Amino acid sequence: MCKGVVRSILSRSPFLQKLVFKLERWLREDLYSAMSHERFAHFLDLLAPDVTGGICFSRKGSINDGGYVFCDFQKKYSKLISFGVGDNVDFERAISDLVDSIDLYDPSVDKLPCKIENATFHKIGLGQEFGNGFLTLYDATKSSLPDDQLLLKIDIEGGEWDSIVTTDSKVLENFSQIFLELHDLHKVCDPIILSKYIAALEKLRLNHELVNIHANNWSAYSVIQGVPLPDTIEITLLRRSDHPKKRNSHDSNVKEFNSPNNPKMPEYRLIF
After folding, report:
1. HSE of 244, CA atoms in CB hemisphere, 13 A
2. Which of 54, 94, 181, 234, by CA, is between 20 and 30 Å from 64?
């Protein structure tokens, strides 16, 4: 009963939510210092962008929240599979003329906030197994296979890690580009969670290059072993076989297409 009352109060008070969050972060500082330096360094290496010379970039979707950096090869794709709708489909709407169809998934809303002609909405979530209102990434993909011209977007408030870890790398290889919002990075002090994050990133990078990383400045950040780390980041991955040329310099303008999620606050600067 008491826990329910506390949850109810917290859910109605952004100020108290921030206060609790800061208290948790303060208590976590000792855990950050006790983390394995080698494991954390490996995690940061997996988030370091690859060389992106020769790729043309554009931005699809909102200039702020709801937009992602896109590798623009001036071609059409067969399908965008998108998890996480909420009240914003700016990205999907911008992509709609580059794909034959779009499948959107979100169990938390009843319909799309606006109509997209070639899109189908499913009130289903992305999970680790099929059932109880959830499906796996393989379930969402299998009707489209064999097809190597798929796009994937995932923004599901932290559920992305388990979903990626439990997805076969051969399923991920079907996607030419992957757009992800990664959440809860402050939880890396937990060795089990850090191992999960590393496993997910290693799986993503088996066949894809990380061509863009951007910090979401709506989120808080922690200084972990001397490294400022935002809680939420956005990344774009490109399948390596789609851009096989050797590149030895960052001669692209990818940073020009990133912009603050919260336009009233300055951007976070990533140092890894």
Report:
1. 1
2. 54
Burial class of residue 269 (count of CB atoms within 10 Å of its CB; 0-12, 13-18, 19+): exposed
CA dist., res. 33 & res. 105, Å (int): 39
How many whole angstroms separate alpha carbon 62 and alpha carbon 247?
30
Cβ atoms 262, 217 nearer than 8 A: yes
Low-confidence ranges of the chain (pLDDT < 70): 1-13, 17-18, 20-28, 244-252
User: Cβ distance 77 to 176 under 8 Å?
Assistant: yes
User: What pLDDT shows up at residue 10?
Assistant: 47
Gyration radius (Cα) of the chain, Å: 19
Cα 103 from chain centre: 17
Which stretch of DSSP H or E encloses residue 81? Answer: strand 77-83
Task: Please report the pLDDT score of residue 119 as a whole number.
Answer: 97
**CA 125 to mean position of chain CA atoms:** 15
Strands 175-182 vs 150-154: parallel, antiparallel or unpaired: parallel
What whole-number distance in Å separates Cα of residue 62 and Cα of residue 92?
10
Question: Are residues 81 and 132 located together in one domain of the fold?
Answer: yes
Residue linked to tokens 């606006």: 114
Beta bridge partners, 102, equal 80, 119
pTM value is 0.88
Asked if 196 and 159 sit in the same domain, the reply is yes
Q: What number of other Cβ atoms are within 10 A of residue 30's Cβ?
A: 9
Domains in the chain, number: 2
Contact 79/102 with Cβ under 8 angstroms? yes
At 24, list the tokens.
């948790």
Q: Which domain holds residue 170?
A: 37-257
